[in-house]
Design brief:
The protein is of the alpha/beta class. It has a domain of about 230 residues: Alpha-Beta Barrel (TIM Barrel), CATH 3.20.20.70. The chain contains ten helices and twelve strands. The chain has a twelve-stranded mixed sheet with strand order 7-8-9-6-5-4-3-2-1-10-11-12. Helix 1 packs across helix 9. The protein is globular and about 60 Å long.
């Protein structure tokens, strides 16, 4: 392995539209213990384990990108907690100079067993996917049992010391309308930051249509009819995908992520690294840049830096959902990393 230092003149990760990239989403596996309809097929063949990046390779890539201005990392999957010793990777990433925060997106099934070790490792935030509080609806979406395990995981995370816990709920027309108020009540009671996410064309069965999208505006209307007007929150981070609102009584926040009806591409600061080592400059990118090949062919850190800079330079202005030239990615969500 060659580790030539990156010249100080390498600069930041800035694309052709002036967007500075400071956030990296790292998928650690394509495997998952659920089969959510908006993410995975029921029957799936996963990547061979030797094609996935090792923790050492992931940390090396993160170190190179930290030198180019990456400051925050979120670990994703698949389901990242199915990969063993994830707390060790968290510690490795937080030891990299320049990395300020490591967060995790999980379905919560294995969270009860791992919450304490992740908290001790320095993980700063949890994003937990939870689309319903009814077992029958949970199973219809996830195509597996597990609601009680998710709720136990959330309780364990609170007990371990996590204070920044966000609940991600995908909104699908004809399925989610009756889940909105119960989820809102639950998150208000537990002190979780709930975010509703529009259904995106990244389902593995390619069954997505715009008619299935329950828009963030519609969801917000349901929330306000039950709980009263929401107060727009101050955006401390202009690049965050969620539009947050405060409850009028000051008891917390709720957010809406609307990539289909109200794209936020203009402020995007995110890059992605797939579990098999491919850089992607957009969730909907149809092109990838092979970091694994550089890592495993003796390439130096400068080569990795040049590769990711090329990836950033090629980033489009927007994902283009709904436009005539939109091309659906070949990979589904579980293969990319959320």
């Amino acid at each position: 392995m060659r580790t030539e230092s990156i010249p100080k003149t390498a600069g930041r990760l800035v694309d052709g539209f002036g967007r500075v990239h400071t956030d990296l989403r790292i998928s650690v596996t394509d495997r998952c213990n659920l089969r959510c309809t908006y993410c995975m097929p029921l029957e799936v063949v996963f990547k061979p384990r030797d094609q996935l990046l090792t923790y050492e390779e992931i940390a090396r890539v993160a170190g190179v990108l930290a030198g180019l201005g990456i400051r925050t990392i979120r670990l994703t999957g698949g389901e990242p907690l199915v990969r063993s010793r994830l707390d060790e990777l968290v510690g490795q990433l937080l030891a990299i100079p320049g990395i300020e925060q490591v967060a995790l997106t999980t379905n919560g099934l294995l969270l009860a067993e791992q919450a304490q070790s992740l908290y001790r490792a320095g993980l700063s935030r949890l994003n937990v996917s939870l689309d319903s509080l009814r077992e029958d609806v949970f199973e219809k979406i996830a195509r597996a049992e597990g609601l009680e395990r998710v709720l136990s995981g959330l309780a364990a995370a609170k007990a371990a010391g996590f204070r920044d816990i966000r609940i991600n709920a995908v909104s699908m027309r004809g399925l989610s309308e009756d889940e909105i108020v119960p989820l809102t009540l639950f998150c208000r009671r537990e002190g979780f930051h709930l975010r509703f996410i529009e259904f995106m064309p990244l389902d593995a069965d390619a069954g997505w249509s715009s008619q299935q999208v329950l828009s963030g505006q519609e969801v917000r209307g349901i929330v306000e009819r039950r709980f009263g007007p929401l107060v727009p929150a101050i955006r401390s981070d202009p690049s965050q995908p969620a539009i947050d609102y405060c409850w009028a009584d000051g008891s917390g926040m709720i957010g809406f992520i609307d990539p289909v009806t109200a794209p936020f591409c203009g402020q995007c600061d995110r890059l992605r690294l797939t579990a098999d080592g491919q850089f992607r400059n957009c969730l909907f990118s149809t092109t990838e840049w092979d970091a694994r090949q550089v890592l495993r062919s003796g390439g130096c850190d400068v080569s990795l830096a040049e590769l990711v800079q090329e990836c950033v330079r090629d980033k489009r202005a927007a994902h283009g959902i709904g436009s005539e030239d939109f091309i659906r990615p070949e990979r589904a969500m579980y293969q990319i990393g959320g």
